[in-house]
Design brief:
This protein has 424 residues and is α/β, with parallel strands linked by helices. A 7-stranded mixed β-sheet has the order 2-3-1-4-5-6-15, with helices on both faces. A 4-stranded parallel β-sheet has the order 8-7-9-10, with helices on one face.
Length: 424
């Protein structure tokens, strides 16, 4: 996706002079007091996400959609602590790195004085940001990291909306079940991080329950350049299905070595989370038919709790704002993060942290990504569909086709699994 010019974050906060001026009448002083009392209360919302680094593709257009949703809230109106309130977004770059994410969150709290934090885009950002907020007693609202990867710690001030591992694996299963051309042996591709650990822990039992055999060829280090041992292990086990969670850059390296090894032809289904979410990330692969989870799209039968706009309306607005025809799943979650913020603030009616936390715990709201209802571990499980990237040789373009939508009420699959094939 091409970078668009980021929308200016324009916030008016007119300064009001205190005290009396020489020669001013008592009436003029009263008018000045009335003016000060009528000002909107500014709510500073910190936002940490990856503007750079390995997950920068997740962050493309994130600020535009987030600010778009905040503009809707400000236009609708919000009252906090007895005053009209206006939300101001203060952003920081996580650099796709946990340590930088932690540093960014600390600076937003201690130096920028944010009242509330929001964050998103993989566990490398959301987990360290929530840890900082826990220590600082600042409400943190996050989205789109797999739930178990986020819930590695106990949370009091942090709340999360994402999909859980069972939901992700169920969408992968829907792809496996659409072909009888496998030996039902699944290779688990996973990095040695919290997201990789979550799927590596869950997949063996899940596979066995559904008549498959899962094989772990070994974890890998993020940024690894040599996957030869893992590929040999997959070959020795005659794996025909690949499943797991990988960054796009790691998957690119792995895929090229898989192809060079000559083993790609034996793989019948590839269901890899995270690596294939965006069109830009799969265009260079020349691999037709890779499957991924679909977090959200314009066909979701959901609507905004801010102003009732539909998912299709939001998809259309994304295209208008960015000029991009392909609307990423992340757009719905970027918008929903602000929806959650809006509903917590609206119901709490205050910036008192204890009240904000108690309100979030009781939140049950329909959003653009479905029902958000936090459990005892402070996370909400969202629905997923299964999608497959298919290249249209006539229009010379890629499309993400929904091939299974059983976990999203009202969403229909538009096609079935196509054959996995590498282009020459």
């Amino acid at each position: 996706m091409k970078k668009s010019i980021r929308q200016a974050l324009i916030v008016s906060a007119a300064a009001v002079l205190l005290g009396s001026m020489a020669g001013c009448s008592e009436s003029a002083q009263q008018n000045s007091s009335d003016s000060m009392e009528s000002q909107a209360q500014v709510i500073r919302v910190g936002f940490v996400y990856p503007k750079s680094g390995v997950y920068s593709s997740y962050g493309e257009y994130t600020e535009e959609i987030t600010q778009y949703a905040i503009n809707q809230v400000n236009e609708k109106g919000l009252e906090v602590d007895g005053k009209d309130a206006e939300i101001v977004l203060v952003t920081a770059d996580s650099g796709s790195d946990p340590e930088q994410a932690k540093k960014a969150a600390k600076e937003l709290i201690s130096e920028k004085g944010v009242d509330i934090m929001i964050t998103s885009k993989t566990a490398d950002t959301t987990v360290p940001v929530s840890k900082v907020c826990e220590k600082s007693h600042v409400l943190c609202l996050s989205v789109d990291t797999p739930d178990e990867a986020w819930a590695v710690d106990t949370h009091q001030y942090s709340f999360h909306a994402g999909f859980d591992t069972n939901t992700e694996l169920t969408t992968f299963l829907s792809a496996w079940e659409q072909t009888d051309n496998t030996n039902k042996r699944v290779g688990i591709m996973h990095q040695n991080d919290s997201e990789g650990a979550a799927i590596d822990t869950a997949l063996p039992d899940f596979a066995e329950e559904h008549g498959y055999v899962a094989y772990d060829p070994g974890s890998y280090q993020g940024g690894q350049q040599d996957f030869s041992n893992i590929i040999e292990n997959l070959k020795n086990q005659q794996v025909t299905i690949l499943a797991g969670v990988m960054s796009n850059s790691d998957f690119q390296t792995f895929y090229q070595q898989l192809e060079n090894n000559g083993y790609l032809g034996a793989i019948k289904v590839i269901t890899i989370g995270k690596a294939a979410l965006f069109k830009d990330n799969i265009e260079d692969l020349n691999l037709n038919g890779i499957c991924t989870e679909v977090w959200w799209n314009g066909d979701f039968p959901t609507s905004s709790s801010i102003n009732e706009m539909t998912s299709q309306d939001l998809a259309d607005e994304f295209t208008r704002l960015t000029g991009e025809e392909e609307v990423p799943s992340t757009a719905g979650y970027d918008y929903a993060n602000v929806e959650i913020l809006y509903n917590v603030l609206k119901e709490a009616g205050t910036l008192n942290t204890d009240k904000l936390v108690s309100t979030a715990k009781e939140l049950d709201v329909e959003t653009i990504i479905g029902t958000v209802d936090y459990n005892e571990q402070n996370y909400s499980v969202q629905g997923l569909a299964c999608g497959q990237w298919v290249y249209d040789t006539i229009n010379k373009d890629w499309s993400l086709n929904v091939i299974s939508a059983d976990l999203v009420d009202g969403l229909e699959a538009e096609s079935r699994l196509s054959v996995l094939e590498a282009f020459d």
